[in-house]
Amino acid sequence: MSDTKNLQMLLQCPMPKLDFDVITLGHGSGGILTNKLLDSGVFNLLSNDILDERHDGAFIEMNGKMAFSTDSFLISPIFFPGGNIGELAVNGTVNDLAMCGAIPKYLSLSFIIEEGLKVSEFWEILVSIKYACEKAGVQVVTGDTKVVEKGKGDKIFINTTGIGTIHTKANIRSKNIKTGDKIILSGNIASHGMAVMSVREGLEFDSEIKSDTTNLNYTIISLLEKFGNHIHLLTDPTRGGVATVLKETAQSTNLGIDIFQRNIPIEEQVANACELLGLDPLYVANEGLFISFIDASIADEFLKMLKKDNNGIHAKIIGSVVEEHPKQVILESAIGGKRVVSMLPGEQLPRIC
User: Where is the PurM-like C-terminal domain positioned along the sequence (predicted)?
Assistant: First the structure.
C-alpha cells in the first residue's frame, strides 16, 4: 500500500466527539480539560506500551552508542501542500538522527498551542504525526502540552526530541572529509520553502508545488550497510538551504568546495517560483533532502544505488572537495562563470520550518 493511501486511511479516522470545538487556556491547566484533550487525541492515537505508562518521563532500553537530537518547529501556515507542522516535526528530528548515522527509535513530543486553535486542526496534526511515526518506525514515548493566550503564539508550535542507536558501520564526522571527496545531493532543491511561500503569496502554477518533507532514515541505513565508513559526512540542508550547509562544511574543514550549477537538480516550476519572488534556490529550505560527502572511489556506485531509492530518484553529484580556496565554496554557473557562495546573511524565508 502506498504512503499516500496510508495517510488517507489515517485521515479518515473519526475524530472523537468532544464538548468543545476550540482549545482554550483551560486545556493547558493540567486539570480536567487537559486530560480530556490528551485522552481523546494524543494517548489514544499514539498509544504504545511506553507512552501508556503516562509517567513524567519514559523508561527505555538502548544498546550501544546513541545519538540525541532536538528541534522546534514554527511554521506559517501550519498546513501546506505536501504536509503540515506535525509531519514536519517528526521527519525533521528523525532526519537529524539519520544524518548522525543513527537508527531513530524514540521521540518526545511537546506542543505549545495558542488558545483558539480548532480541535479539528489539532486532530489532523495528530493524525499526521501518527502517520509520520509509523512510516519512520519511531515511537512517541513522552511529551508535554501547554496553551498560551491568544496573540502570544501562532496557532501551534511543536518540539520533538529524538534518540537513536548509531549504526555499527557509521563514522559520520566532518573531520573525515578529505580532498577529492565527491558531494552528492539526494534530490530536487527548494521544494519545501517554495511550497510554503506559494501558499502565503497565493501563487498558482501549472501543477502544485509540494513540500518534500519525508523521513530519510531507511535510505541512510541502506547506504551505510553498503558503504560504511566511505561515507564521511551526511547533512540535511534545511534552514539556509544547500549553500549554507556547504559553506559551514568548508569553514569547519578548512577545505575548499567546488559545485556546478548545471548539476544541481531543481523542478522547473520551483525554479520559476524562485525567480518570480527574487529568491536564490540555493538558500531555500528543504525538508526531505540530504547531502553526502563520500570517498570518490564509491561515488558512481553510491549514486546508482541512491537513484533506485524513492528518496534519491533525482540525486546527482554536484561537486567535490578541493585544496584550493580553503573555507570557500565556488559555484560554476551554467554558462561557465564562477562566483563565491556565502552563508545566508539574514532571514530569506520567514517561518518555513
Answer: 178-329
Taking only the tens place, the pLDDT of each residue in 278-287 is 899 999 999 9
The answer to whether residues 318 and 185 touch, using CB atoms and an 8 Å cutoff, is yes
Report the half-sphere exposure of 8 (CA within 13 A, side-chain side). 5
Q: State residue 133 phi and psi, 5-degree precision.
A: -65, -45
Predicted confidence (pLDDT) at residue 290 exceeds the cutoff of 90: yes
Distance, CA of 46 to CA of 9 (rounded, Å): 15
Rounded Cα–Cα distance for residues 269 and 195 (Å)? 11
Asked whether the beta carbons of 97 and 69 are under 8 A apart, the reply is yes
Query: Which amino acid belongs to residue 142?
Result: T
Contact 172, 233 (CB under 8 A): yes
Pairing outcome for strands 139-148 and 102-114 = parallel
Q: Are residues 145 and 26 in the same domain?
A: yes
User: Of 166, 186, 204, which residue constitutes the final position of a domain?
Assistant: 166
Whether 77 maps to a domain, the answer reads: yes
Closest by Cα among 301, 273, 99 to 202 = 273
Q: Is residue 245 one of the residues assigned to a domain?
A: yes
What's the grid cell of residue 333? 554557473
Domain CATH number, residue 235 = 3.90.650.10
Residue 117 pairs in a beta bridge with: none
Domain of residue 118, CATH code: 3.30.1330.10
Q: What is the mean pLDDT of residues 9-26?
A: 74
Rounded to whole angstroms, the Cα distance separating 241 from 246 reads 9
Amino acid at 102: A
Domain boundary among the residues 146, 166, 186 is at 166
Mean residue pLDDT across the chain: 91
For residue 29, the SS3 value is coil
Residue 68: name the closest of 213, 157, 166, 175 by CA.
Answer: 166
